[in-house]
């Protein structure tokens, strides 16, 4: 249960948060599984960020390469071109200053450009230690998301298999944190993401959801990204992504009750409301 403050170290600062925080997703991709092609211009990006912050987001995650199952990679040049309007807004002081900004990428040069523009977190979905990414993040003492994945987005859902998915994700995260701490000692906080849907069967995703309380106990900030994902559709008779808001809110509530630190979401208002209600219940149960 998230009953105390937690800290995030990034860019040489220590930021204190209370309870679960909401990270709003800003996709600058034409082919994301839910909101691809919805925004690309500076006005659209600025309006979306302001809207999410007004609804309760304290972190904003921006990405320009789809990682939906079966998606093809994009070139570094194309990814940078898609991100350029965001970089210009952030470096020019034309976005809200109080959320923390995260760059969702697996490319070192993209991460460098994002950090130069003012981002605070590198969010890599590669599922492995990337020395160049770690080095770039460490140069600015930025925080780093360590996400578990089996395979690449193109192939990850073809034949995923685990003997014990919870133990394997825990071992991966422990090994990643140990190696990153040694190779990049100036890195900020390492945030653990179990990688829901990244080379996981439905049964694997459900086991990881049930194991969230033990992930939280390891001491790393834990981020959960289940918003509108296919596991919800699988549980609800093939429901399309556009109809998965209610299912997302249910899983976000479960994650909050488990004490996770960050929810990465498409729908900030509903996630923030779930966070507030769970926090009130937890405060009451603890006699606060």
The main β sheet shows up as: 8 strands, parallel
The CATH class label is Alpha Beta
Number of strands: 10
Number of helices: 10
Q: Say what the CATH topology is.
A: TIM Barrel
**Largest sheet, order of strands side by side?**
8-7-6-5-4-3-10-9
Strand content: 15-25%
Calculate the mean pLDDT score and round it.
91
How are the elements arranged and paired?
Layout: E1 5-10, E2 13-18, E3 21-27, H1 42-55, E4 59-63, H2 76-91, E5 100-104, H3 108-117, E6 121-124, H4 131-139, E7 143-147, H5 165-183, E8 190-193, H6 202-210, H7 212-216, E9 223-224, H8 230-235, H9 245-258, E10 262-265, H10 268-285
Helix pairs in contact: 2-3, 3-4, 9-10
Overview of the molecule:
This protein has 288 residues and is α/β, with parallel strands linked by helices. The chain has one domain (5-285): Dihydropteroate synthase-like (TIM Barrel). Helix content is 42%, strand content 17%. It contains ten helices and ten strands. The chain has helices at 42-55, 76-91, 108-117, 131-139, 165-183, 202-210, 212-216, 230-235, 245-258, 268-285, and strands at residues 5-10, 13-18, 21-27, 59-63, 100-104, 121-124, 143-147, 190-193, 223-224, 262-265. Strands 8-7-6-5-4-3-10-9 form an eight-stranded parallel sheet. The chain has a two-stranded antiparallel sheet with strand order 1-2. Helix 1 (42-55) links the parallel strand 3 and strand 4 (59-63). Helix 9 (245-258) packs parallel to helix 10. The chain is globular and about 45 Å long.
């Amino acid at each position: 249960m998230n009953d105390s403050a937690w800290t995030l170290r990034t860019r040489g600062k220590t930021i204190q948060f209370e309870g679960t925080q909401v990270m709003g997703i800003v996709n600058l991709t034409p082919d994301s599984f839910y909101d691809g092609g919805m925004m690309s211009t500076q006005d659209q990006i600025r309006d979306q960020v302001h809207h999410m912050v007004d609804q309760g987001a304290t972190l904003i995650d921006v990405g320009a390469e789809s990682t939906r199952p079966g998606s093809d990679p994009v070139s570094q040049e194309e990814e940078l071109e898609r991100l350029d309007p965001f970089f210009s807004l952030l470096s020019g002081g034309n976005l809200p200053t109080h959320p923390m900004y995260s760059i969702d990428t697996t490319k070192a040069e993209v991460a460098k450009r994002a950090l130069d523009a003012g981002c605070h977190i590198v969010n890599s979905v590669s599922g492995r230690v990337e020395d160049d990414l770690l080095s770039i993040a460490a140069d600015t003492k930025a925080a780093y998301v360590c996400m578990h994945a089996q395979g690449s987005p193109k192939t990850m859902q073809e034949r995923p298999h685990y003997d014990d998915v919870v133990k394997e994700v825990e071992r991966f995260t422990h090994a990643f944190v140990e190696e990153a701490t040694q190779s990049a000692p100036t890195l900020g906080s390492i945030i653990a993401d179990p990688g829901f849907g990244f080379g996981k069967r439905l049964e694997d995703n459900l086991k990881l959801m049930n194991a969230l309380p033990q992930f939280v106990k390891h001491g790393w900030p834990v981020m959960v990204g289940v918003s509108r994902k296919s596991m919800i559709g699988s549980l609800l008779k093939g429901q399309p992504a556009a109809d998965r808001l209610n299912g997302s809110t249910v899983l976000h509530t479960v994650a909050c009750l488990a004490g996770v630190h960050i929810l990465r979401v498409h729908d900030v208002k509903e996630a923030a409301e779930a966070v507030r209600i769970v926090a009130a219940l937890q405060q009451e149960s603890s006699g606060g």
